[in-house]
Design brief:
Order of helices and strands: EHEHEHEHH
Structural class: alpha/beta
CATH architecture of one domain: 3-Layer(aba) Sandwich
CATH class of one domain: Alpha Beta
Largest sheet: 4 strands, parallel
Number of strands: 4
Number of helices: 5
Shape: globular
Distance between the termini: 10 Å
Mean pLDDT: 94
Amino acid sequence: MVEDRIRLLIVEGRRYSGLSDALLAGAVQAIEAQGAEYEVVTVSDALQIPVAIAIAEEAGKGPSGVRYDGYVALGAVVRGETYHFEIVSNETARGLQDLAVGKRLAIGYGVLTVDDEDQAWNRARLSQGDRGGQAARECLEIVGLKRQLSGQAR
């Protein structure tokens, strides 16, 4: 049935646009392979991803809002010379985990936290780590689990 089709929102932080493109390609491929629908919104940095997901979830409760079954968070945080890396990495992860547990949202975590861009590319490329695809598959897994445990068809 069409109404049983899974609908995801991909939220990508675009600080590193090339890496974001690679992560997005993997996520889209994984989502399409499962026959799910998706939309993409962008924010400028990883730290904004939890806020964007919270806004989307709240908007979906309104009369004209779009309801999503799950969210795929994509982005990259590359270590620099300051403490900023730890703050962005930790607070992004905390924000996403708070949403996932507190609001019981299906969120696939595809935010790379790496020491350098080489590590990021090794995790982002479809031919290597495919972290974007993995995040999408994890999100779809949780959506399926939520449907199973609530008695809904998959």
